[in-house]
Design goal:
The complex is a heterotrimer of chains A (about 250), B (about 650) and C (about 230). With about 250 residues, chain A is α+β, with helices and mostly antiparallel strands. Chain A is built from 9 helices and 7 strands, in the order ββαβββββαααααααα. In chain A, the strands form 2 sheets. A 5-stranded mixed sheet of chain A has the order 2-1-5-3-4. In chain A, strands 6-7 form a two-stranded antiparallel ribbon. The longest helix of chain A has 16 residues. The mean pLDDT of chain A is about 95. In chain B, the strands form 6 sheets. In chain B, strands 5-2-1-9-17 form a 5-stranded parallel sheet. Chain B has a 5-stranded antiparallel sheet with strand order 11-15-14-12-13. The model of chain B has no long low-confidence stretch (mean pLDDT about 95). By secondary structure, chain B is of the alpha/beta class. Helix content of chain C is about 75%, strand content about 0%. The model of chain C has no long low-confidence stretch (mean pLDDT about 95). Chains A and B meet through helix 1, helix 2 and helix 3 of A and helix 3, helix 5, helix 6, helix 12 and helix 13 of B.
C-alpha cells in the first residue's frame, strides 16, 4: 500500500522542529510500524538524506523503548499495543499518518521522535525499590503471599515504562507510571516495610520533574500498552494520604 | 599462552565455599578507594553494579539504551531455574548441575556449572526479597513449571515475562545505589574501546550517543556485561541494539574469545514473513509444555496445505507426524532446544514444512485446550497467544501456531576463568557476554539464572580478590593510553563517516546475516564454512569502501552507531566461521553435517574436542590464533546425549 | 514548608483538596435543592420565604456559610493552580490529537465547565443572595421575613436568565458526572465491590440535582403567573 507520512523532524533539543511530509510506497500490511519506518529510512539514506531518528529496541513489546504519537494516539490506533507491535494491516492504502514524539515538559525532545525519559528513572531512584542488600535474605517460601495479592501486584509490575500514559494524558501526568510501582510494592509484604517513605518520595520527585496532576480522565489507562489499571492511581492516592498523615517524616 | 582456568582444588561441591574463604578481601573502609566500571545493565550488569555499590565500591555503570531498565534481559519470557526442590520431585543442586552439563553437550566447565547450580537457590530468595512477583500457588507459596531438557519442575516464572520482572528487580536495586551515590549511571552511552595500562584493564572510552562526545572513564577494574552477539545474523530474537562491540573491542585489545561458533537456535519463534523483517519474535519454550509439534506426514499433504488446497483441519490425526513425540518418547516435545530446532529444520528440508514459505512447523494447542479448557490455557500463556495474534493476525486458540527456529542466544563469548576474569587482568565478563556455563547449548531458563548468579553472587567475591592486590592509585584519563584509545575511536568514526559509499549499513548487515544463517547456522559443513569465510572477507572489504553513513559524529546519529556495530560483526562473523571450521565434531548448537549419528543426532568427538576454543586476535585481517583449555570431567560421565 | 503545607501543595494533595471540597459542595447542593423545593409549594411563596429567612438568620447556617465560601475558594484556587501546572506540563501540543478515543469530553473539560458554573454562581448571587442579604427587599405583610420569592418570580420571567440557568445546570451535570466519581478516585476510595455503585450513584446524583435546579426557572417561566 502507499502512504503519506507526516513526521516531526527536529535537529536537537535546542532547535525548533516541524512536520515534514514523506510519500512512502509499496508497504506490506504484514510489516510492523517500525519496519515501515525502517523502509523509509533506507530510502532516505539512499537519497543521501538524514534518516528519521526514533527509539526502539526489543521490537517485541516489552522493553518500553519505542514510543511515537501516531495519528493522534499514543502507540497508534490499536489498544493494548506498543508501536513495535502495531502492524500496517491496521492502516489503509492512501492513508496519511502523522507521527510525533511524546509531548511533555518532562520529556524534552532529543532529536526527531526521540525524547528524554530520564525523569522516569529519577522517580524510580527516589524510592521504587525494596531496601535489601544482596544476600542475607530469608528463604523465598518464608514469605507466603496470597495468590490474589501476588497477581494484583504482578498486574502493576508489568509497566514497561514507555511513557504512553504521560503522552496521552492531557496534563502530561505521570501518575499511572508512578502508581504502578508504588502499588506493586505496597501490596507485597516485602515492600510494606518502607511503603510510606516510598510513596512520599516518589510523588515528591514526580512533582519536581514537572509532570501534570491527575484529572482522572482515564486516558493513561486506555492508552497503556500493557493495561495498567487506574486502581493503582487510587491506591497511590490512598497510600500517599495515609503516609502523609502518619509517617515519621515531618 | 597458557590458559589457567583457576579452578579451585577439592571436591566439586566444596570448591566454591573453599574459594570464597581463600580469596583476599578488601576491608570495608578501603572499598571506597576502588572504582569499578560495569558496562551493560541487563541482569548480569545491573545486579553486579548494584551489589558492588552495596559493598561500598564506587561504580560507574553504562548502557546504550535510554534507561538501564530496557536491557534485553527484559525480553526473556519463560523463567529461571533454581534447584530449590520445592516440588519434591527429586531435584537437587547436583541434578541441576548434571542437567546443565549434559544439556550443554559436555562442553562447559564442571566447576563453573556446579557453582551456578549452588547459587541458583540464593537468586530466588534475593528476587523475592526485592518484590519480584513470581507466580504463586493458592497457598501463597511459589509455583514452578517444567522446561526443556529437564524432567523436574524447577523453573520459577512470572507469567511469560520473567526476564522483565527479574530485570526490574535488579534495576530497582541499581536505582537504590544510584540514589545513594554509589553508582553513577551513564545511559545512552556506548563503550567503544577498552583502555589498558601496564597490561591491566584500567578504563574505557565511550561515545555519548546524544552529543557524540568521546569520553574516557578510568577505574581499577572493568566488568563487561554486554550480552551476546546473536545479531551477527541480523535476524535474531535479540533486540535491535544488542551488539558485540564492547566485547569485540576488548577482544581486539587482547581478551580471548571462546567458542564463538556455539550459537543457540531457539525452536519456537514466529516465522519470517518478508524481506523487510527486522527481527524475529520468540514464543517462550514453555509453550512446549502443552503445545504439540507436528507437520503433515507426507510431502504431498504439506504441499497441498501450503498451496491452500486443503485446510489444517482437513489433515486427519493419522496423517499428522508428531515427530518429537515419535522420535524422543521420554522427553517428547520437551527435548532441548538444539534438538528441537534441528528436527524442525530436518522436516522442513524434507519438504514437509508448513506456511507460505514452507519454513515452519505447527505448535498445536488443540489437545491442551480440550483437556484443560481455554481459560486454563489462557491463564498460562495468554500474553504469548496475544503476541502471536498481533504479529500474525491469526488466533492460536483456533488454529495451531506456526513456528520456526531462530537465532536466540550465543553460548560463546569472552573467555573467563573461574573468577569470571578474562585473560586481561582486571577485565571481567559476566552473563551472556562470557562463554562459561552453557557449553555448546544452553538449557531453557538458564540464561537468567547465569546472569544473576554472576552479578549478585560471583563477581562481588571474585573482584575483591583482584582489587585487594591492586594499589589504590587511580589512573588519570589524561594518561597516554586513554588518549590513544580516544584517538583510535575517533579514527574509526572518521573513517566510517568519510567513506560516503552507496550501500547502507543495514544492507551490509543483512548480507552478513544471510551468509551466517546459510553456512554457519543450524547446520554447517566444512565446504560451506570455507565459502562463508571468503564471502565475509569480501563483504567486509566492500563495507570499508562502500558503506554509506550520513551525518556527523557530534550529534545523535543512529546510522553511525549501527555502523560501528556492524563493522565489528563483520569481523566476529569470520571468527565464528573459523571456530565452526576448527571444531570437527557436532555438539549442542554446533552441528557439523559431516559428524552425525545414523539417527541424525550430534556426534561428539570427546577425544579430540573436549576443549574450550579460545581465540586470540592478531591484527586486522589476520588469522586468529587458537588456544585450548582442556575440559576435565571428573563428576559426570560423558555419554551420547539421549532424550529418547 | 512544613509537612502539612508540603502535603497540600503537592499535586496529589491539591487533588485531595479538590475532592474533599467538591464532595462538600455536593452536599451543599443537596441542602440547597431540598430547600428550594419549597418554591414548588403553591402558597404564594410563604414556605420559601420562611425557609430563606431561616437560612439567612440561623447562626449554625451562618457559620456553615463561611465554611461553604471557603470550600468554594479552595476548590477554585486549587483548580487554577492545577490547571496552570497542567498547561505548563505540556508546553508544545500535538499537531494531531484524538483524545476522544481514550477519555470523555467532560473529564477533559472540568475547567471549562467549572468556569461556566462560576459565572453562573456570580450571577446567581447577584440575583438573590446580594439583595436578600444586603439589599432592600420588600417585606411581606404581617410577617417578619422579606419577600425573596417575589425576586425569584421576577428573575425567572426573564428568558435570558432562564436560559443561563438551564445551560449552567447542564454544565453542572457534566461537571458532577465526572467530578463525583473522580473525587472518590482521588481520595483513593475505590474498591471492586463499591466503585461500580459509586459510579452509578454519581451519574444519577448529578443528573437529578442538576435537573432539579433547572426545573425551577423553567417552572416559573412557563407555569407561574404574577
Amino acid at each position: 500500500m502507499d502512504l503519506t507520512l507526516k513526521i516531526w523532524r527536529q535537529k536537537d533539543k535546542n532547535s525548533a522542529g516541524q512536520l515534514v511530509t514523506y510519500p512512502l510506497n509499496g508497504i506490506s500490511p504484514d510489516m510492523s510500524f517500525l519496519e515501515m519506518l525502517d523502509v523509509l529510512n533506507e530510502e532516505l539514506l539512499v537519497k543521501g538524506e538524514e534518516p528519521v531518528a526514533f527509539d526502539h529496541d526489543c521490537r517485541e513489546g516489552i522493553c518500553g523503548m519505542c514510543s511515537l504519537f501516531i495519528n493522534g494516539r499514543a502507540h497508534g490506533p490499536e489498544r493494548g499495543t506498543t508501536t513495535c507491535q502495531l502492524h500496517m494491516r491496521h492502516f489503509k492504502h492512501g492513508d496519511t499518518i502523522t507521527i510525533e514524539p511524546w509531548r511533555a515538559a518532562a520529556f524534552p525532545v532529543h532529536k526527531d521522535l526521540i525524547v528524554d525519559r530520564s525523569a522516569f528513572d529519577r522517580i524510580q531512584q527516589a524510592g521504587g525499590y525494596v531496601s535489601v542488600n544482596t544476600g542475607g535474605v530469608p528463604d523465598a517460601n518464608e514469605i507466603p503471599i496470597p495468590k490474589t495479592i501476588a497477581d494484583k501486584a504482578f498486574d502493576a509490575a508489568t509497566c514497561i515504562g514507555c511513557g504512553a500514559c504521560v503522552a496521552a494524558c492531557k496534563n502530561a501526568s505521570a501518575m499511572l507510571f508512578v502508581s504502578a510501582k508504588v502499588s506493586q510494592l505496597a501490596m507485597l509484604p516485602q515492600g510494606k516495610v518502607e511503603a510510606k517513605t516510598r510513596v512520599e518520595n516518589m510523588v515528591a520527585q514526580m512533582d519536581v520533574e514537572g509532570f501534570g496532576a491527575c484529572s482522572n480522565t482515564g486516558a493513561c489507562a486506555a492508552e497503556c500498552p500493557v493495561g495498567i489499571s487506574l486502581d493503582n492511581i487510587a491506591m497511590m492516592n490512598r497510600e500517599y494520604l495515609g503516609a502523609k498523615a502518619s509517617s515519621e517524616n515531618v | 599462552m597458557i590458559l589457567d582456568s583457576k579452578i579451585p582444588e577439592g571436591a566439586l561441591a566444596e570448591k566454591w565455599d573453599k574459594h570464597k574463604f581463600n580469596v583476599k578481601l578488601v576491608n570495608p573502609a578501603n572499598k571506597r578507594k576502588y572504582d569499578i566500571i560495569v558496562v551493560g545493565t541487563g541482569l548480569a550488569g545491573a545486579s553486579a553494579a548494584a551489589t558492588l555499590g552495596e559493598l561500598g565500591y564506587n561504580v560507574k555503570a553504562f548502557c546504550f539504551q535510554d534507561s538501564p531498565r530496557r536491557a534485553h534481559s527484559i525480553a526473556a519470557q519463560g523463567g529461571i531455574n533454581a534447584a530449590k526442590n520445592y516440588q519434591n520431585d527429586g531435584d537437587s543442586i547436583f541434578r541441576l548441575f548434571y542437567d546443565t552439563i549434559k544439556g550443554g553437550d559436555y562442553r562447559a566447565r564442571e566447576a563453573n556449572v556446579y557453582r551456578l547450580a549452588q547459587v541458583s537457590v540464593n537468586i530466588i530468595d534475593q528476587c523475592v526479597a526485592q518484590g519480584v512477583p513470581f507466580a504463586r500457588e493458592y497457598g501463597g507459596l511459589l509455583a514452578n513449571r517444567s522446561f526443556g531438557g529437564a524432567q523436574v519442575s524447577r523453573t520459577f516464572y512470572a507469567r511469560g515475562q520473567t526476564g522483565q520482572q527479574l530485570l526490574l528487580g535488579a534495576y530497582s536495586a541499581l536505582n537504590r545505589q544510584i540514589a545513594y551515590g554509589k553508582v553513577k549511571m551513564y545511559p545512552r552511552t556506548e563503550m567503544l574501546d577498552l583502555v589498558m595500562v601496564d597490561g591491566k584493564a584500567r578504563g574505557i572510552v565511550v561515545r555519548n550517543l546524544i552529543t557524540g562526545k568521546i569520553e574516557s572513564h578510568s577505574a581499577h577494574a572493568v566488568v563487561l556485561a554486554t550480552g551476546g552477539y546473536g545479531n551477527v545474523f541480523f535476524l535474531s530474537t535479540n533486540a535491535m541494539g544488542s551488539n558485540a562491540t564492547a566485547a569485540w573491542r576488548a577482544h581486539k585489545k587482547g581478551a580471548l574469545f571462546a567458542n564463538p561458533c556455539f550459537t543457540q537456535i531457539h525452536p519456537t519463534c514466529i516465522p519470517v514473513s518478508g524481506d523487510y523483517q527486522s527481527k524475529l519474535t520468540l514464543m517462550s519454550e514453555s509453550l512446549r509444555n502443552d503445545g504439540r509439534v507436528w507437520v503433515p506426514k507426507t510431502v504431498e499433504l504439506a504441499q497441498r496445505l501450503r498451496k491452500g488446497e486443503i485446510k489444517i483441519n482437513d489433515i486427519k490425526e493419522e496423517d499428522r507426524d508428531y515427530y518429537l513425540e515419535r522420535k524422543y518418547p521420554a522427553f517428547g516435545n520437551l527435548v532441548p532446544r538444539d534438538v528441537a530446532s534441528r528436527n524442525a529444520k530436518l522436516v522442513c528440508d524434507e519438504g514437509r514444512g508448513v506456511g507460505a514459505s514452507g519454513l515452519a512447523v505447527f505448535l498445536d494447542f488443540a489437545d491442551a485446550i480440550k483437556r484443560e479448557g481455554q481459560p486454563a490455557i489462557a491463564a498460562k500463556y495468554g500474553n504469548l497467544f496475544e503476541m502471536y495474534a498481533k504479529i500474525t493476525d491469526e488466533n492460536p486458540y483456533e488454529s495451531p501456531m506456526r513456528i520456526y527456529p531462530a537465532v536466540h542466544y550465543t553460548m560463546g563469548g569472552l573467555w573467563v576463568d573461574y573468577n569470571l576474569m578474562t585473560n586481561i587482568p582486571g577485565l571481567y565478563a559476566t552473563g551472556e557476554c562470557n562463554f562459561s556455563d552453557h557449553g555448546a547449548n544452553r538449557l531453557g531458563a538458564s540464561a537468567l539464572m547465569q546472569g544473576l548468579a554472576d552479578g549478585y553472587f560471583v563477581i562481588p567475591y571474585t573482584i575483591g580478590d583482584y582489587l585487594a592486590q591492586t594499589p589504590y592509585a587511580k589512573v588519570s584519563t589524561e594518561h597516554p593510553a586513554f588518549k590513544e584509545a580516544e584517538q583510535n575511536v575517533k579514527a574509526i568514526t572518521d573513517r566510517l563517516l568519510s567513506i560516503k559509499g552507496n550501500r547502507t549499513v543495514d544492507d551490509f548487515h543483512k548480507a552478513l546475516g544471510q551468509i551466517m544463517w546459510d553456512y554457519c547456522g543450524m547446520a554447517r559443513n566444512a565446504e560451506g564454512l570455507q565459502f562463508a569465510k571468503q564471502e565475509i572477507r569480501k563483504l567486509r572489504d566492500e563495507f570499508w569502501q562502500n558503506v554509506k553513513v550520513t551525518g556527523v559524529n557530534e550529534e545523535l546519529n543512529q546510522t553511525l552507531e549501527k555502523a560501528h556495530r556492524v563493522a565489528d560483526f563483520l569481523e566476529l562473523g569470520e571468527l565464528m566461521v573459523d571456530d565452526a571450521l576448527n571444531r570437527n565434531e557436532s555438539c549442542g548448537g554446533h552441528f557439523r553435517e559431516e559428524y552425525q549419528t545414523p539417527e541424525n543426532e550430534a556426534l561428539r568427538d570427546d577425544e579430540n574436542y573436549a576443549y574450550v576454543a579460545a581465540w586470540e586476535y592478531t591484527g586486522p585481517g589476520n588469522q586468529a590464533i587458537l588456544h585450548k583449555e582442556d575440559l576435565k570431567f571428573e563428576n559426570v560421565k560423558l555419554t551420547q546425549r539421549s532424550y529418547k | 514548608m512544613n509537612w502539612f503545607t508540603k502535603t497540600f501543595s503537592s499535586t496529589i494533595g491539591r487533588k485531595i483538596i479538590m475532592s474533599v471540597t467538591g464532595l462538600f459542595l455536593c452536599s451543599f447542593l443537596v441542602v440547597h435543592l431540598v430547600g428550594n423545593l419549597t418554591l414548588f409549594y403553591r402558597d404564594g411563596g410563604e414556605a420559601f420565604n420562611i425557609y430563606s429567612h431561616f437560612m439567612a438568620n440561623n447562626p449554625v447556617i451562618r457559620t456553615m456559610e463561611i465554611v461553604l465560601v471557603l470550600g468554594f475558594l479552595f476548590h477554585i484556587y486549587d483548580a487554577i493552580v492545577l490547571t496552570r501546572r497542567n498547561k505548563a506540563a505540556r508546553p508544545v501540543g500535538y499537531a494531531e490529537n484524538h483524545p476522544q478515543e481514550n477519555s470523555t469530553w467532560s473529564s477533559r473539560n472540568m475547567g471549562l465547565l467549572g468556569t461556566i458554573i462560576l459565572v453562573f454562581l456570580l450571577v446567581h448571587l447577584w440575583n438573590f443572595f446580594v439583595p436578600a442579604r444586603f439589599g432592600e427587599l420588600e417585606g411581606v405583610p404581617n410577617a417578619e421575613y422579606t419577600n425573596l420569592y417575589a425576586e425569584v418570580v421576577k428573575a425567572f420571567k426573564n428568558p435570558i436568565y432562564v436560559g443561563l440557568y438551564v445551560i449552567s445546570m447542564i454544565a453542572l451535570a457534566y461537571h458532577l458526572i465526572h467530578g463525583f466519581q473522580s473525587a472518590f478516585q482521588s481520595l483513593g476510595l475505590t474498591h471492586k465491590k463499591y466503585t461500580p455503585f459509586i459510579k452509578t450513584f454519581g451519574v444519577a446524583f448529578s443528573v437529578l440535582i442538576s435537573l432539579g435546579f433547572a426545573l425551577i426557572p423553567l417552572y416559573f417561566f412557563f407555569f407561574v403567573n404574577l
